[in-house]
Amino acid sequence: MVNVNHEQQYPSVPPKQHQSHQPGQQEKMHPEPEIIKATHQGSDKLKDKVVLISGGDSGIGRSIAVLFAREGADIAIIYLEEQDDAEKTKQWVEQEGRTCLLLKGDLSESQTTAKHVDEVLKTFGKINILINNAGVQYPQSALTDISDEQLAKTFHTNIFAIFYLTRQVLPHLHPGDSIVNTTSITSYQGHDELIDYASTKGAITTFTRSLSNNLLKQKKGIRVNAVAPGPIWTPLIPSSFDAETVAQFGKDTPMGRMGQPSEVAPAYLFLCSDDASYISGQVIHVNGGTIVNG
């Protein structure tokens, strides 16, 4: 595996580029996102755990998969259609000496989640960690430009799918297991061109807090948390915005640059490890220094 140091290799903002189809392909990005820090030494924080990651083929999901494998976990990833990206993630996980199960399908359909959870259980016999990470976004300049079809797709992919998948996985989790959801800085700040997307991310934040309270009340011993990324360099960015917008990506953060997936994945690792045993219902903000008081 090739590891790179983003401080040396990556520009503060990307060059102009655009991909015409979501969820986008990581191999077509330039530069490609950094997946794992060269300095990270695994210490078996997730030894022999089984992790199910939605949207695990690229971007933040790929970084989580590789980082968790380095920490001793076996991985199952659900992806929509980007087979090449999924196969590359599998290769990287296997280079860490762990197993990676690829599951292709549309999570906005509840029957897909049931089938995939069954496949994970048949392959590994258990699930210890669920990462709800898949999502889409379609910028529009006005609310009146958001069609019924777009609204339905955004909500079904970003929040309905989390309900579907979590509902299927939850009966198989045990005390000490955990769920981490990917929300967004837009949940706290809003976004003038991503009204429907930001609304789903607000729902994910509230889902995280509500499910945490519910499971703690039931004394299930299962923790539920979230990570709220800011501007992170993933395939969703060039496949969502035009080239001019992409070339300014992350420039307005206090750090003055975009973040890399390798800088987000450790937040998920912390929340899923025993280091976070007294943390539930919380959100970690990985956004380049923007203070959101959330």
From TrEMBL:
Keyword terms: Oxidoreductase
Compositionally biased tracts (Polar residues): 1-11
GO molecular-function terms, A-Z: oxidoreductase activity, acting on CH-OH group of donors
Chain positions covered by the region annotation Disordered: 1-30
Signal peptide: none
Superkingdom of the source species: Bacteria
Pfam families on file: adh_short_C2 (PF13561)
UniProt similarity note: Belongs to the short-chain dehydrogenases/reductases (SDR) family.
Name used for this protein in its record: NAD(P)-dependent oxidoreductase
Naturally occurring in which organism (per UniProt): Acinetobacter populi
